[in-house]
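Chapter review: from sequence to fold.
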Amino acid sequence: MSDTIAIALVTALSTLLGIFLTGLVTLRQRREEHEEQLAAWKRGLRRDVYVQFISEAATLEAESDRFWSNPLPKNYESVLRDLRSRLRRLQGISYVLALEGPPPVAQAADTYHTAAKRQIEQMEIAAQKARRTRKTKAVGTFTREVWIEYEKMVWEMRESFLEQARSALS
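The token string follows.
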């Protein structure tokens, strides 16, 4: 084999090897970029769901506080119905959290939902007591210990959810 042919073959093989290695490096970089973009998209999706949950929980808490701290309104059944409706929306978001995870966040959301549900059940009992007495005191004064206990429990569950959500997003 002549030197010219040998040099041509070595050059051609070197070029092909260079193209192949460049292709592998480029493919790996693209895959890493895609994985990073996918991870960022998932974090954004999770964050959006966490924000929805927190927003709905904050509204539910504010409306619950208003119910506990004011005299029983004449339309208290509709107020309780609205609270239960908010609770159902919160539960719907909890289902999405159960799908998207991670499990500690889903568990914290479920625990919060359960605490809020129990609080509304206690609000119904307090409303019935307030209705029977026909006094114009704040609803929470009829079951003050229960009110304080559930307010504290809901606050702790919200903080637990926030802690788990922050951990999942970092």
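Two observations follow directly from the output. The CA atoms of residues 105 and 164 lie 5 Å apart. The chain has a mean pLDDT of 85.
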